[in-house]
Amino acid sequence: MASLRGITSGPHDLCGFQAPDQAERHYQLVLTSHPQDTLRELAEQGLERIRSGRESVTRSTQATDPAEDRFKESLATKDSLA
User: Fold this and answer.
1) Sites in the chain below the pLDDT cut of 70
2) CA distance 12 to 25
């Protein structure tokens, strides 16, 4: 029963509440309960969705971090003055 509850709570937390950490706990709970194959696969897919969402946020932040851009520009300016 915990598997079914976790599988239904995971997507609800992830998509409805934008709470990936809580969703991840639900999916992990499903996996630790040694569920049938279908529930295990759904939990693994949910975890993968969370991981890829975190990776895309990290890449997006790295690509658009203005402080980092200013730092790189200041280094380039110092190098050109030397």
Assistant:
1) 1-8, 11-17, 57-82
2) 12
Q: Kindly state the tokens that stand for 11.
A: 């997507």
- What is the distance between the alpha carbons of residues 15 and 29, in angstroms, rounded to a whole number? 18
Q: Are 27 and 46 in contact (CB under 8 A)?
A: yes
31-52: per-residue pLDDT in tens? 999 999 999 999 999 999 999 8
Phi and psi at 33, nearest 5°, equal: -90, 5
CB count in 10 Å sphere of residue 77: 9
CB 24 within 8 A of CB 52: no
Q: What is the pTM of this model?
A: 0.58
Token pair for residue 37? 């194959």
In angstroms, how far is CA 44 from the centroid of its own chain? 13
**pLDDT value of residue 55:** 78
